[in-house]
Fold this sequence. Notes:
The chain is of the alpha/beta class. It has helices at 17-28, 40-49, 69-80, 103-131, 152-172, 208-211, 216-228, 242-249, 251-258, and strands at residues 8-12, 32-36, 56-58, 85-88, 134-139, 177-184, 187-188, 214-215, 233-236. The strands form 2 sheets. It has a 7-stranded parallel beta sheet, sandwiched between helices.
Amino acid sequence: MQQLAGKVVWITGASSGIGEALAYACVRRGCKVILSARRVEELERVKNQTGKPDWVHIVPLDLSQTEAVAELAAAAHQHWGRIDILINNGGISQRETVDKTQLMVDRRIMEVNYFGQIALTKAVLPYMLSQGAGHIAAISSLTGKFGFPLRSAYAASKHALHGFFESLYLELKDQGIGVTLVNPGRIRTHISLHALTGDGKEHQQMDPGQDKGMTAEVCARKILRAIARQKVEVNIGGTEILMIYFKRYVPWLFRWIAGRVEAK
């Protein structure tokens, strides 16, 4: 992945989990990074822990506030004069059944996971087009490939990302700008702790499967490898990846396995 050295990489959701791991991995590979999230104090912590704080620029960002994205993108671009790679990693998950999920929760998840990502992509894209080069990665999920109990709004937001970024790839493939859809499975992060319940409160529980999943560090390495290789789509995880193939080729088996998840 030596070709990543010297690139300017913008990572959202960089205050923890996969985003934090990506920040460290990028700096180790000689990248300058722009880190974004809502929690500025956590971004400062990550910046200092990279070991090269001069290579890190912080741009506080709330993905639900899409009206501010264009101005933030302009400021981020001005700092180093270019943005080579955008990794849309920020997002929130869900843990509740459809009948107990208030519509405002569906709207919030869609606003952050879908509209937040595409707003930032639209704000950064003109800079990449003027450069004649760039790469955009969208961190989706395996649930962007199939529905799953307790994650109706989350799965819907990730399905929407696939439609948007697959279309974007086809539009940009001859213009020097790559697009990669990343579908992580069970990654050991705090995503389930911060997942929204039906009334918008945090779940505050670690999923057993999540706790046994792949580390964020390994996931980050695989994401950067996929970007370096210009892969259009990559699935990252363990045996849970098989669910994609069950859904496609043995749908009754997929429905049987997914249906065994207990709804609260």
